[in-house]
Amino acid sequence: MVRAPCCEKMGLKKGPWTSEEDQILINYIQQYGHGNWRALPKQAGLLRCGKSCRLRWINYLRPDIKRGNFSREEEDTIINLHEMLGNRWSAIAAKLPGRTDNEIKNVWHTHLKKRLKHHEEATGPAAATKRRSKYYDQVAKSQANSDSLEHIPVSPQEYSSDMSSTVTIGDDNNDNDTCPKAESPGNFPEVDEDFWSEVLSTESSGGVVSDFSAVGGDPHELQVPFSPLMAMEPVNGYGSNMHDSMDFWFNVFTRAGEIPELPDF
DNA sequence: AATTGCTACAACCGCTGTGTT
DNA sequence: TAACACAGCGGTTGTAGCAAT
User: Fold this and answer.
1) Where is the HTH myb-type domain (predicted)?
2) Which residue approaches C13 most closely, CA to C1'?
3) Is the CB of residue A110 inside 7 Å of nucleic acid strand B?
């Protein structure tokens, strides 16, 4: 079996879609659905590759697409989700009904990155880290208080609107500084290479790390409840992408019963 | 009015994950 | 189990439109 090229270069159109093409695609999908994108253009009579049709439908023609500018609330949500999820645009889009990953990615690169940069210039370079730590601090507090997610800030406004009151690294006078260790690499517990390689190999082989004593330590020593994102960072040194590791680490730690699941935004 | 530079966004490209044979 | 097809994802590019000069 020989794999066919993704796109037949010969005779297939590229570039901006015309309104006629849009209409053909809409009519076809409304009538037959889009079971097989690869076969769709031929059946619909379009000189496009399936990939192009899929992108056009998902990013532009789908009836549930929300057009127009992003609201301030949506922008805040993107910023905060981006802090937690990184460049996982589809995951972010899943939390914003009617918005596509492509659209969110564009908005991020054209507006929000700048907005965030200006904001951090005004509030200090560690603002994002503080906000992130504050979020996880509240997760930890909530778990300690009630074992529920009831008090976790689930809207961006709840945990970003009062950034001015967030903690400062090394500010011993700040009573709110409940999570200094998560912010200060110097206080982050030492974890030897064996731990991370063992965790990685255990999970990649399909296993679940539930006995941390077997791989080098007690999860409490890692302060996992306070800072799962910090805990991910050492993995970078082993060639993994930090953001792609997000699900991996949450799986590891939540299944180990150490932190609650992230709230559903 | 013409030119240049910038911004926003649609679309493409290459890669990865998953299901199927 | 390997090879493949396909869908989906994220990075990048191309270009239209606008503002500044």
Assistant:
1) 9-61, 62-116
2) A15
3) yes
The protein residue nearest B16 (Cα–C1') is A244
Domain-terminating residue out of A84, A105, A123: A123
Domain that holds residue A39: 19-61
Query: pLDDT of A15-66, one tens digit each?
Result: 889 888 889 999 999 888 888 898 898 889 888 988 899 999 998 898 888 8
Q: From the CA of A65, how many Å to the C1' of C13?
A: 24
The answer to the question of residue A142 being in a domain is: no
Query: For A161-209, what is each residue's pLDDT tens digit?
Result: 333 222 222 222 333 322 222 333 333 333 334 444 444 444 444 333 3
Q: Residue A113 CA to C17 C1' — how many Å? A: 22
Lowest mean pLDDT among A36-40, A93-97, A127-131, A234-238: A234-238
For residue A95, tell me if it sits in a domain. yes
| A76: in domain | yes
Q: Residue A57's domain is classified under what CATH number?
A: 1.10.10
CA of A14 to C1' of B11 (A): 8
- Please give the model's pTM, rounded to 2 decimal places: 0.57
